[in-house]
């Protein structure tokens, strides 16, 4: 055991967006700050490396954002995807803070660009990072260095020692040594437990072993479990998570956003029995893409298949992997490994249910099927123009929603009251706001808003 220097005011556990926002905010208040990032330096940044946008409220056109997107519309969108399972006070706090956060981010080196075209349809609601999430992470680390924030990589935190209503010390391992520190205050921003597939399987059952993990393999929930075991109050359901349908050829870990498939609204989606199982055109993709991971998880072998034709191949951002191509439906079925006769029947039934109407790929067009179940309620065009294309689908988990319960100051709670010198931000407390479902760009909203709040509160505590 090595007892290292204890002259830190604030220690931030984690190295992604929320952690960096907390560390920067605390340092700008004059605090001496240490970041403990569990990943090696080339993989720093957690899931934030794979993000690309930030959902932002604005009452008029602003910078790269068009038109307006006011608090109530933003809140209504959140209620729709969560089914009302959210802490409304914390949700509104996050939403109201986003406009000011945009300016704060720019002032610390983050650069934005207009939204991408196609199925995303986010020009009003989401500001895209120029260079993606990796660029944002690097900008924050450059700013942190200017502020004198110390960063230790491959620093795996294993224990926070709770003593009544405060944390006395923490332990972490680095370069084979176990070290102990006793800072004045701490911020936990080390993500969920999705990379621990055994823990996922405890919640989901054996099916979870077939899930792919879109993000960092370092978010294993060690700090989260350590605090919950010591009496920190939990929030959220362990079976709820940000899970999307991704290309089935993606790696087990760290495939990132390039493995996501945006073609579902223009497709027919079937399972291994070549049967449709949900409305592919229920809503615009940014409001519905995050339900498809759970839908695929409920299918045999946790696999689905997207079927599109030549009319739709250029309407969406492609996966990093090319689609499987064939000149007939039967040939495509053979290549996908699903029953050819069954897929032909499904496609013929779907095509027969399509009706004439105007097709508008970037908005709800009401072009719906008639007489089949499940219906397709928008963008329903026959799959009849060769060549035909297919993608396999697997459940890709981004982050889990079981987390630490916090209040509006981001302070971690216990059943008997708050932990006086402990705050949480980002995915490790996102279940306070996301009871289920997901809204594109909202994870970055939670991390940015509550990271800044946690950093401010931790610095204030340390200074007094």
Automatic annotation (TrEMBL):
This is FAD-dependent tricarballylate dehydrogenase TcuA. Residues 9-435 form the FAD-dependent oxidoreductase 2 FAD-binding domain. SUPFAM superfamilies: FAD/NAD(P)-binding domain, Succinate dehydrogenase/fumarate reductase flavoprotein, catalytic domain. NCBIfam families: CobZ_N-term, PRK08274.1. The lineage of its organism: Bacteria, Pseudomonadati, Pseudomonadota, Gammaproteobacteria, Oceanospirillales. The keyword Oxidoreductase applies. Its cofactor is FAD. Transmembrane segments: none annotated. GO terms for molecular function: oxidoreductase activity. It comes from the Bacteria. Keywords: FAD, Flavoprotein, Oxidoreductase.
């Amino acid at each position: 055991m090595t007892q290292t220097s204890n002259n830190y005011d604030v220690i931030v556990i984690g190295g992604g967006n929320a952690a960096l926002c907390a560390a920067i905010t605390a340092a700008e208040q004059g605090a001496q700050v240490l970041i403990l990032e569990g990943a090696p330096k080339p993989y720093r940044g957690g899931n934030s490396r794979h993000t690309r946008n930030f959902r932002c409220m604005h009452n008029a056109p602003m910078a790269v954002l068009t038109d307006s997107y006011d608090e109530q519309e933003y809140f209504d969108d959140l209620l729709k995807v969560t089914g009302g399972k959210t802490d409304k006070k914390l949700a509104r706090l996050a939403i109201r803070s986003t406009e000011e956060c945009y300016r704060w981010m720019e002032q610390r080196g983050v650069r934005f660009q207009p939204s991408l075209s196609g199925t995303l349809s986010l020009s009003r609601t989401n500001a895209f990072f120029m260079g993606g999430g990796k660029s944002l992470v690097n900008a924050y680390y450059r700013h942190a260095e200017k502020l004198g924030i110390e960063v230790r990589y491959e620093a795996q935190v294993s224990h926070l020692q709770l003593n009544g209503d405060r944390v006395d010390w923490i332990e972490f391992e680095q370069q084979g040594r176990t070290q102990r520190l006793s800072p004045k205050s701490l911020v936990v921003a080390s993500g969920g437990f999705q990379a621990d597939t055994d823990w996922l399987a405890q919640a989901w059952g054996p099916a979870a072993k077939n899930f792919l993990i879109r993000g960092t393999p370092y978010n294993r929930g060690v700090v989260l479990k350590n605090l919950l075991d010591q009496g920190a109050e939990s929030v959220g359901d362990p079976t709820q998570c940000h899970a999307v349908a991704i290309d089935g050829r993606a790696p087990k870990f760290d495939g990132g956003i390039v493995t996501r498939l945006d073609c579902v609204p223009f497709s027919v989606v079937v399972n291994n029995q070549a049967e449709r199982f949900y409305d592919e055109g229920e809503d615009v993709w940014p409001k519905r893409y995050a339900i498809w991971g759970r839908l695929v998880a409920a299918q045999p072998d946790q696999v689905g298949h997207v079927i599109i034709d030549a009319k739709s191949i250029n309407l969406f951002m492609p996966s990093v992997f090319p689609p499987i191509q064939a000149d007939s439906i039967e040939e495509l079925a053979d290549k996908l490994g699903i029953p050819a006769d069954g897929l032909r029947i499904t496609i013929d039934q779907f095509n027969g249910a399509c009706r004439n109407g105007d097709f508008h790929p970037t908005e709800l067009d009401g072009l719906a099927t008639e007489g089949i179940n499940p219906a397709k309620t928008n963008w329903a065009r026959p799959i009849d123009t060769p060549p035909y294309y297919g993608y396999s689908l697997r459940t890709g988990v981004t982050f889990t929603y079981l987390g630490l319960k916090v209040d509006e100051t981001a302070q971690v709670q216990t059943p008997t009251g708050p932990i006086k010198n402990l705050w949480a931000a980002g995915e490790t407390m996102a279940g306070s706001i996301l009871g289920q479902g997901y809204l594109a760009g909202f994870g970055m909203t939670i991390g940015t808003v509550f990271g800044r709040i946690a950093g401010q509160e931790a610095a204030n505590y340390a200074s007094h």
